[in-house]
Amino acid sequence: MRILVVEDEKRIADFLSRGLESAGYAVDVANDGASALNLVHATEYDLIILDLGLPDMDGLAVLGKIRNRKVSPQVLILSARDGVDDRVKGFEVGADDYLVKPFAFVELLARVRARLRSGQPMPERLQVGDLTLDCIRRKVTRAGENIELAPKEFSILEYLMRNRGRPLSRTMIVEHVWDMDYDGLTNIVDVYIRHLRSKIDEKYPDKMIQTVRGIGYLLDIPERSSTVMPQAER
To answer: Tell me, which fold does domain 125-233 have in CATH?
Structure first.
């Protein structure tokens, strides 16, 4: 699998290149839009990781030119632009996924693998039972009722829902949401999970956030949770 990294900051480009190569991918790097387009015309890529703040042209313009080709690869935007309008515009122009800087490499790698495995865009709307999460508009509802979440609560819930039925360790959650090493002495994950439960589970009969003894947490409707992980407990 060959990946093109389009990133003008050398430190980030080198970090991505080394990490992806260690994961077994062939990687090319372009530091501006013109070089990226030349490489795309000359080489068949399976995936492009595209920064939007390029020195010679906007990354969305590069994306538009890539999408005008008869055959174009998957494109994952990696940008510091974190506004809803920015993400919506990225998807409208043709991005398959959008990840905001700063980011955890483990999440980037997971998204890369998902893109290459499925060839389908990451869902913009997640649903588990009567719980719905709109990834673009950053809205959460359960049984039709709006639920207000703080940014970290939203990120944890999105991570749990994208991994429905899969136990996630506290280490995985910390690295994904805070992009830092997990100190086993801190209870930050447990505190945020408690906040989440009070908002999305407390007033509803089906408790979706399950504790997996000795591991961490998973999210699923109770019937599926008890089937997939019999040791899970509330």
So the answer is: Arc Repressor Mutant, subunit A (1.10.10)
Interior CA angle at 140 toward 138 and 151, to 5°?
Answer: 50
Q: In the block, which residue shows the tokens 């989440």?
A: 196
- Each residue's pLDDT tens digit, 72-83: 788 999 999 888
> What is the H or E stretch that residue 210 is in?
strand 209-212
pLDDT, tens digit, 9 for 90 and up, residues 176-195: 776 555 565 578 899 999 99
Among 207, 29, 173, which Cα is nearest to 104's?
Answer: 173
Structure tokens at 59: 């990354």
CA distance 27 to 4: 6
2-118 belongs to which homologous superfamily?
Response regulator (3.40.50.2300)
The predicted pLDDT at position 121 comes to: 52
Q: Where are the alpha helices (DSSP H) in the chain?
A: 10-22, 33-42, 59-67, 84-93, 105-118, 151-162, 170-177, 188-200, 222-228
